[in-house]
Amino acid sequence: MMNNKELDDILNDPIFNLDDKEKELFALPEVIKKGKNKKQKADEIAKRQPCENFEDYAALFVQVHQDLKEGKRNLVRFKEDNLREKVFFIADGVMGYVDQLDVENRQIKDRIRKDGRSRVIYEDGTESNILFRTIGKNITKNGYIITEMNDGKELSSFSMPNQVDDKDLVQGWIYILTSKSEDERISSVENLYKIGFSTTPVEERIKNAKNESTYLMADVNIVATYKVYNINVKKLEFFIHQFFAAARFHVKVGDAEPQEWFVVPLDIIRQAISMFADGRIVKYVYNAELQALEEIVFNKKERIKTERAPIAGLEILTLSIKQVHFDFILKGEQIVESRVLKPTTMAKLTRLDKATGKRYVRQPSVLRLYSGYSKDRDVLLVEVKRTEFEAPDFIMYHLGKILEYDIKKSTAEATGVIK
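Structure (tokenized):
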């Protein structure tokens, strides 16, 4: 974790060099101050305590995050049988680890249910002696159980060798590329990959990459290629693109906006391609916020959607918020969304100028807001009129009009979107 001096060094950039008149622009509205103070008071009365032996667990959290990004672990919805000792979970965006669990059947009102105390370690260095049922409620409301390790098998082609003979023809290649672009909008993005297809060998297809907008007008590196036999390659490519649609990279190159670039960890892409090959993919969706594969339960509940908004070329910042704030923004009753700048959110909320080594607060044109982390969560796109910073760590996004939404019917009724 960063110490205060390191954080001060990172924040020592031109956005903080303000005179008195400029500082007036960052005056914190009273309503935001109250909200911030209320949150601080809530934190003060929370039952979590510092974990004295956190060093015994820190590396585990790092490894589990890596396992999720490599597709070796997945996210599943809460079930009592899944919550046991030595299991990891996510609730309200924070990973926890059930170190000890003392559970028995108890009479709760008119039912016999499991309950008891547990020792839970959190990735922020705290721990709590929390009730089993409380953990379950927190995960059910806004989180997931993290599965045990899986084998993460991959395939090099879309037909097993013994299924291919000299009568079969290669239909094409699915490929994964990285860009050699020196454009900071592109070069500064981690886990940026192009997923495409070609009916000719990939080496031939990319020879003119630096002159084609689909390749971001730059040369590329070949990361992986997959031969496809007896399958419509174009349809397969379409389904892969749809699967990762929430992680599509939006950038304008000249007059074009390429559609085949995605911000997804490489191992997740490999795992997804493997799952398309054997059909397992139908049981999963990609969770872009947590960068992990999520098991799904098919839900045909009615949703209310708007037409797609014209956001090509705009900088979009994706955030998760609580349902109550989501509803207020959708109704136009909340016009500021704020964030506290932390070491864990530094890369997301700021950008690095490679030339100077300084960081600047990002100035997004649009916020993509998710209501929590559940599989059927609501999502909306809202205009950002301006971004303000209050030193040392408070960022405010002043919101404008709603550009697009995809919400549950119940949310639409509760917020007055439909009567």
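Residues 38-46, 151-165 have pLDDT under 50 and may be disordered. The two ends are 49 Å apart (CA to CA).
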